[in-house]
Amino acid sequence: AILSGKWVTTSNPPENIISFSRSEGSEGAAEKAPYFVHGGVCNGFGVGLVVDKTNATYTVEEGATTLKQCEPELWRYDNSVREAFIRGNTIYFDGTHAYFAKGGTGLKLSPAH
């Protein structure tokens, strides 16, 4: 449910929705196909998550981002979210919020409305 939902961060810039998708043709493919993280208000996040659903863990595959000139605060937002995914390795869902974390700290996502 987490990887098929639409999410926002606590410090959500207006209209920024975070979602996940697999590349075209990977549905039903090996479990090692990454979920690309969509969103970002400037250059995007540039990360894919290879998820082990059995253990609720993930590893990161870095991807490309754009190189648009952005307001510094928008660039910092995208970079902060990207770094939070990279630092984490565990997915947790408390019934409302999704967490991508490691050692009790990480990224908290709320459902987008």
Task: Supply database-style keywords.
113 residues, alpha+beta, four-stranded antiparallel beta sheet, 1 helix, 35% strand
Task: Lay out the secondary structure.
Blueprint (H helix, E strand, L loop, with lengths): L6 E3 L9 E4 L12 E4 L8 E6 L4 E6 L9 H16 L2 E4 L4 E5 L2 E7 L2
Antiparallel strand pairs: 1-8, 2-3, 3-4, 4-5, 6-7, 7-8
Describe the protein in words.
The chain has 113 residues and is α+β, with helices and mostly antiparallel strands. Helices cover 14% and strands 35% of the residues. The chain has a four-stranded antiparallel beta sheet with strand order 1-8-7-6, covered by helices on one side. Strand 3 (35-38) and strand 4 form a beta hairpin.
Number of strands: 8
User: How far apart, in Å, are the first and last alpha carbons?
Assistant: 15 Å
- Strand residues, percent: 25-35%
Question: What general form does the structure show?
Answer: globular
- The residue ranges in which pLDDT falls below 50 over 5 or more consecutive positions are none
Given the helix and strand composition, which structural class is it? alpha+beta
Count of alpha and pi helical runs: 1
Mean of all residue-level pLDDT scores = 85
Q: Identify the strand order in the major beta sheet.
A: 1-8-7-6
Short characterization:
This protein is of the alpha+beta class and 113 residues long. The chain contains one helix and eight strands; from the N terminus they run E-E-E-E-E-H-E-E-E. The mean pLDDT is 85.
